[in-house]
Amino acid sequence: MGSIALRSLDYWLIRYRRTWRGSAASTVLTPVLFLAAMGVGLGSLVDRSGSAGNLGGVSYLAFLAPGVLAATAMQTAAGEATYPVLTGTRWVRTYHAMIATPLSAAEVFTGHLVWMVVRVAMTCLAFVAAMAAFGTLHSAWAPLALPAAILTGLAHLTPVAAFSARLRNDAGLAALFRFGIMPMFLFSGAFFPVSQLPALLRAVAYGTPVWHGVALCRGFTLGQGLTVGSALLHAGYLTGWSAVGFVLARRSYQRALVR
Amino acid sequence: MPVPEAPDGGAPPYISARGLTKRFGDFVAVAGIDFDVARGEAFGFLGPNGAGKSSTMRMIGCVSPVTGGTLRVLGLDPVTDGARIRARLGVVPQEDTLDLELSVAENLYIYGRYFGLPRRVIRERTAELLEFVQLAERANDLVEPLSGGMKRRLTIARSLINEPDVLLLDEPTTGLDPQARHALWDRLFRLKQQGVTLVLTTHYMDEAEQLCDRLVVMDKGAIAAEGSPRQLIDAYSTREVVELRFGEGEQQDVSGKVDGLAERVEVLPDRLLLYVANGDATLAEVHARGLAPSSALVRRSTLEDVFLRLTGRTLVD
Fold first, then answer.
1. What was the pLDDT predicted at B24?
2. B98/A102 Cβ within 8 A
3. Nearest-CA neighbor of A236 among A214, A209, A257?
4. What is the pLDDT of residue B10?
5. Is CATH 3.30.2090.10 the right assignment for the domain spanning B15-230?
6. B155-198 pLDDT, tens per residue?
7. What ipTM does this complex have?
8. CB-CB contact of A202 with A195 (8 Å)
9. Segments making up each domain of chain B, as ranges
10. Which DSSP category does B144 fall into?
11. Interface contact B89-A8, CB threshold 8 A
């Protein structure tokens, strides 16, 4: 089944070839702009206010960069697993073209998921490169932030795809971004430690997969705050979301395509 | 080249359904139908929208699970061998599923890849198929600006990329202008001559008459009649039909005065249909009775008349 699922990769690749210039430019530029404005610009104020104690003794730039890496992985994943999925199920009905061939609904999902992971990985790689250019990789463990960020992306790809495949139109997507992705982007520890949040919200933040992604990425790039045990817990939590989402998404695709 | 065989001939049918049923919750879309399609045959499902034609096609195409009864496609069971069956089918869906942002050739390429065909084979077939559907000059153009007829022809080329044993066409010419429809029929007729088994749904009686060796008339999920277009017309209609139109409000007064003129009379909102053997003779009698229709037409019976007889309704409202 694996190799059959990969038959659709050529399709995603050809589609991407038509639009890669615009998306590649924003993939490279966004992290640079973010790190310059928030990390260096806003960071200089934060660092002067003597907040380093709350940030684990590092500069705001060093604190922010791995957090936004994980949050960007989440946001990219949400983008890839929403509109392109509805394009397949509803708008262009590309998925329906696929299931008229030997591909099954589950294989249609698996093939698209592989491509989504490639897209998330490309974005994360560009972000890590920008982090290196800004000198924010402070540990020998830092390269592990890349797979950690990709895993963070995967933990959002599968559940979001499961959600998107059940939608009739994009009204649900607006709600997903407004009430799900956006708040998680802002409040899951990327921009400030969740210890700053009221207790109730802190508990919510701990439950989000992206908080675990932020903790992993930050631990690896700073070389502090992680033990083998806690790293495995974070990774395990993200893997759990990925796996449950995978099962749910295959069901959603079956329901959406085979009626 | 495959030789067409009668459905009751020696070879097993390509497609066989017994008591085939499709339910969506309480709604019965297909209510236990039986049919066989022989190799090399052009077989049609004729019926109005909502008759269960598309549901039947989706079950044959192995993208919709059978709710009841048995279905065999190419001798295989869709429940266990869906992928193997689909590998040997060509599908022209009711709604185009082409990728408008890709080129004509790219659409064929990616589809060939879904079947696991090597790139070289796809390239060769793409050239042949685009020639066949008269789109060779548009190979590198985007699909988006193509006309509806061209998109339809491209979908047919795409459905042939795996050299299918059976081609499933769901309403292949709905929404096309007459010229584009004839161009499409011409291509389908050639495929038929090459021995490709065609299964199509349509609510156009002329399409069914042009393309189908044999067809079933479907209504409300059930099969109302089965046979060749000729057989159906012979069995359920007369040789000729006289269509009479009257001025505003006159039709009501007239309908009693044509008694005995025809084997059967159908009263439609806008005209009377007299089913007779000899239309001209009947028309002369109509005039002899002093009736003055605003227009009169004598024509041969069509499948539309068969459908009207079987269901009491017209095909296209």
1. 96
2. no
3. A209
4. 62
5. no
6. 999 999 999 999 999 999 988 889 989 989 999 999 999 989 99
7. 0.91
8. yes
9. 15-230, 238-300
10. T
11. no
